[in-house]
Write a structure and sequence with these properties.
alpha/beta; 6 helices; Rossmann fold; 5 strands; about 15% strand
Length: about 150
């Protein structure tokens, strides 16, 4: 699966460290991805455009990671019909609790699959993206099964 099928969006360059595990797992699964920095607050038009153009560009899943008010996953979900996986980041004094609640409390019609805060959430986002993509990719389904089996060792 060399084509980029997962769009990973983070709100700022400083968020990259929290999403490294996500990107590493996507690579391990052989899933092509593109990492883009786009703030829902500082660049709202760019964030909306990314979401609107994602399907046309061949992406199948979007992972959006954000801290503080964490509007990025919701903004992306509001402008796309692709599955959106939100990763709350522990970048505020509230250590991600605010981000978690912001991403979790989406209005009806704008779903965001919400992961746990931080590194584990990023890794789980990659695994969930792989599970979604594996529904139509038998090779990825086998790689995912081997990965899951390896977790028990």
């Amino acid at each position: 699966m060399s084509q980029k099928t997962v769009l990973v969006v983070i709100g700022s360059k400083s968020d990259e460290r929290y999403i490294q595990g996500c990107c590493q797992l996507l690579e391990e699964f052989g899933i092509g991805y593109e990492l883009v920095i786009s703030s829902a607050h500082r660049k709202p038009d760019q964030s909306a455009r990314l979401a609107k153009e994602a399907a046309r560009k061949g992406f199948s899943v979007i992972i959006a990671a954000a801290g503080f008010a964490a509007h990025l996953p919701g903004t992306i979900a509001a402008h796309s019909s692709l599955p959106v996986i939100g990763v709350p980041l522990p970048t505020s004094h509230l250590k991600g609790t605010d981000s978690f609640i912001s991403i979790l409390q989406m209005p009806s019609g704008v779903p965001v699959a919400t992961m746990s805060v931080g590194d584990a959430g990023g890794k789980n986002a990659a695994i969930l993206a792989a599970q979604i993509l594996a529904l139509s990719d038998p090779k990825l389904k086998r790689r995912l099964a081997r990965f899951k089996k390896g977790l028990s060792k």
